[in-house]
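Why show two proteins at once? Because comparison is the fastest way to build intuition. When a single record is shown, students tend to memorize it. When two are placed side by side, the eye starts asking what differs. So, the first record is below.
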Amino acid sequence: KKALVRISAVVEHTGNETSDAIIALEKEGSEITKIAIQNRVALDMSLVSQGGECTVINTICYVYIDQSGRISTDLN
């Protein structure tokens, strides 16, 4: 019976530690996402002066870049 109590305590402790680790990873992942978005915005702002990232990279562009202002200007 003591062995079962001990095993139960170890399993509970392991579960709690695992839960704490998962919560910490979720918080870290959230922070990494925020940093990635901030970096993306900074890169976009930097590259816009050079014609946008698609022009700089010179490849197929999978990112939408609003060209509505340019289109209006070109039409006028």
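Second record. Ask yourself what differs from the first in the token line.
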Amino acid sequence: MQSDSLRLHYLLHSADLIEDRLHHQLAPLGIKPRQARILDALARMSRASQVELARAFDVSPASMSTMTARLVAAGFITREVDRHDIRSNTLRLSKKGSDLLDQIRAAWRAIDDVIENAIGPEKARELAEITLELRDALGGKTPGSASEQPPDDV
């Protein structure tokens, strides 16, 4: 190892390389990595406003609006008037988006395989545990996890 001061560089470079491979895996599906994560989150959330999604992904509402507009245009999600506030919209996964989830998850598994083939199964497992620990320690959460879901209708 050249220098301890370069550790962040190794992490960032590895993340870029992995994301590039994921981009190529998802390209035939017509989506990008973050869009795939949004579809996955909506599958867990059932429905969400753009503000809720923006909060869950730690992006601005304007950025989320741009991403969700593309997903609506592609037919992967639907936008409906919120039943409780007609001034707001609710986003839901469409059938087309739901049908895509298996392919998205297969692409994610393919990238897990790339990592495992590159560093071996034990190191791949350790890497997953360490990156999860880091994400949690930095305040990250799985978008759409139980703690972030909107309450169900009563």
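One difference worth noting in the second protein: Residues 4-147 form a domain with the Arc Repressor Mutant, subunit A fold (CATH 1.10.10.10).
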